[in-house]
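Ex. 9. Protein: PA0069 family radical SAM protein.
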Amino acid sequence: MNPKATLKGRGAQLNVPNRFFELSHEIRDDFLEFCHKEGEASDKNKTLYLPVFPKTIVNKVESPDVGMLYSMNAYQGCEHGCIYCYARNSHEYWGYSAGLDFERRILVKKDAPKLLENLLKKKSWKAYPIVMSGNTDCYQPAEKEFEITRQCLEVFLKYKHPVSIITKNALILRDLDLLKALTADGLISVNVSITSLSEETRRVLEPRTATTKRRLETVKILSNNNIPVDVMLAPIIPSINSHEILPLAKAVSEHGALSIAHTIVRLNGAIGQIFTDWINKTMPDKADKVLHQIESCHGGTLNDSRYKTRMRGEGKIAEQINNLVKLARHKYFKDKAMPKLNCDLHESFKDGQLKLF
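Predicted structure tokens for PA0069 family radical SAM protein:
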């Protein structure tokens, strides 16, 4: 791999134009030359935390192939900087770029715990698992400062409501006390994303995430505390991590994971341009090969929005990947399964304490 990428600790290496804006701006060579002569940085590469105040926090998921009905996101944008992240496009709705802005302009919803509690107290609300991080990681670096995710878990525990978490950050272990309390009533499941066993690959794909070693340790610690863990081998990218499916599955099974899930990478909207720019800078020797193989999984294009097909792909390469995952499940997860979350307790705890009558 070639460390030609110019912005250290970032996935995207540019800000692509926002499709909703008529105007856009670009950094010209003469400006870069001026900065060079003056000894100034053309880009300070700083992360900003920006408060926002939504009226609701839980979203109903309409997509039929996502595997969740309700999700919530304490943060919009994600400092982890995963280059392939499907959530990048959503940042455009907030008026930012799907590129560097997604990693450096983090929108913080401090009212999330209160909004969640208001929802769970409603008489009309019927318990159903809510997924934290349906869009962006609830344990990204911002959580160290704001602790919004922890406050939300306290609300779920208070009202005995089922919740599922998706993360690739070992910071989740900070809240082990709450996770254990939720587990006692069957109210929690955790999905840890692990994309590669190679630190070199992890570093360029997901620059500000926990190391692979730390994530495997997280799976083990959670599992040792009887907290059900699924590992998401997602996304599988041809010729980057597709050869790791079996060793990845073996490793996570040995660390206590009860199941695995996967998707094949798709580069919708602005992500295609961001990923293409990135791979030409970081892996120039294999860029064309990887891009063409991704296209071969999606009908000849990087952009695939077809329900049912978009997650699993089509064609020979996609078929090989999907068959390897089937083999991995049979080989390493034959007698394992994730438990169903408990939706029966919440009604008796509608006001935050057990109703006796």
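Check your answer against this statement. The longest helix spans residues 315-332.
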